[in-house]
Please model this.
Amino acid sequence: MNLKSYTLLPWAIVVICFTVAFFTFPVISKNALQKREENFWAIKAKSLQNKNYLNNKYRKSNILDLQSSFQRSYFHNYKSAIEQHQCLSEAIYYEARSESLIGQKAVAEVILNRRKSKHFPNTICEVVFQGSDRKTGCQFSFTCDGSISSEIEEKNWKRSQNIAKLIMIGGVRPFTESSTHYHTVDISPPWINDLKPTRKIGSHMFYRFKFREISD
Model:
């Protein structure tokens, strides 16, 4: 190796190190930022759970805080979050708008429990609209019985949206014992024989798989 090669070698090493650092550091920084965000929102969710948001009278300060929390927590994928929020809001509204607050939260929790389960689709929207292309295959009746085309009642719709936000950011402590199914109390569908009843909330009876799959 001649003198020129010895002279260029340190510079080559510097260039290589700089190139590796240039492409690696952003990934590390992004991962670190994501981890920090996850930790922050885990703490925020606990705070919202402890405050019992929306359980009593609506307070404007609570709703504003909830809106801000939802926007910030889904900042990195906000467009997707908005779509999922719309689907969850629709499910709460059409399936449970006449229920109490806890009854509406329970319906929303079933949908999120399904999203976590390997037996159902991976996103809220896919869970809600599963089978809606078939007249007898829809998982949630409003997706195939024409209800979704009916006129929205503004007050109940806003309430459904707020509940959906709270559920999506983890602001409600799980309380349905991992339920993945429910039906109104005035019917008795055949599939209940394969499930374990968990609790009755309002006009709905809730069930989970007999094997414990989702941890509260």
Observations:
- The first strand starts at residue 181 and ends at 184.
- The chain has a mean pLDDT of 80.
- The helical segments are 3-51, 60-73, 78-96, 101-116, 124-128, 154-168.
- The first helix runs from residue 3 to 51.
